[in-house]
Amino acid sequence: MSIKKNLRYTIKNRFRGFYPVVIDVESAGFQSKTDALLEIAIVTLKMNKLGWLNIDDTLHFHIIPFKGSIIKAESVAFNKIDPFNPLRGAVSEKKALKCIFKLVRKKISLNDCKKGILVAHNANFDHNFLMAATKRAGLIKNPFHPFTTFDTAALSGLILGQTVLAKACKIAGIPFDTTQAHSALYDTMQTAYLFCELVNRFKRLGGWPPKISHRKKTDEI
């Protein structure tokens, strides 16, 4: 394989200059502007010289609820997080995001990309919480795209016929332990494995690199 051909097998070329970062958050409700962010985890990705996408680095933080935030009993009962447990080792939103953004910027630079792009299962939820926390923390330089995401729920529905993370992983041949679900780190790791499988499956099927169509134009009726 020539060097020129190998250049196609980069994250930069695969995702139009965007660097995908898998994220999951756990919260004390569904409203990103008012409900507390309790956990956040990210997984960065890498691509080998043959174009296969793999997991790279991880970061995980327990978060101190921001001042005045709402903590809904049904939400913490569901994710089994005690926001005020001193053993959590929680940090402020600002400290967690500064560490995350530093790593993401490093990966963007290493892969010659222009911006990070959030990958998540039901991505709108995680994206909203990330953006709201960034605004609260007063961090002006956010390395993530302000609105575009890769949603593994939508991708899984299209490719696997399942939109629930546990079920999509099962269809894709990825182990999923329901007793560990709703931990930000565990869900992020499984989502990362799922995203890599979806991208790599498309490549195995011959969908990447795209084939240029040479079909002759015909007159439309």
Outline the structure in words:
The protein is α/β, with parallel strands linked by helices. The protein has a domain at 11-151: Nucleotidyltransferase, domain 5 (2-Layer Sandwich). Helix content is 38%, strand content 20%. The chain contains eight helices and five strands. The protein has helices spanning 3-6, 11-14, 73-79, 93-110, 123-137, 152-159, 165-172, 184-204, and strands spanning 18-27, 37-47, 53-62, 115-120, 144-151. Helix 6 crosses helix 8. The termini are far apart. The model is unreliable at 1-5 (pLDDT under 50).
Global structural class = alpha/beta
Q: End-to-end distance, in Å?
A: 43 Å
Task: Figure out the total of helices.
Answer: 8
- What is the string of helix and strand elements? HHEEEHHEHEHHH
The strand line-up of the biggest sheet is 3-2-1-4-5
The first-level CATH class name of the domain at 11-151: Alpha Beta
* Rg for CA atoms: 19 Å
Q: Got a strand count?
A: 5
By CATH, the topology of the domain at 11-151 is: Nucleotidyltransferase, domain 5
Unreliable spans are 1-5
Largest sheet, if any? 5 strands, mixed
CATH architecture of the domain at 11-151: 2-Layer Sandwich
Please estimate the helix content: 25-40%
Strand content: 15-25%
Mean pLDDT: 93
CATH level-four homologous superfamily name of the domain at 11-151: Ribonuclease H-like superfamily/Ribonuclease H
Overall shape: it is globular
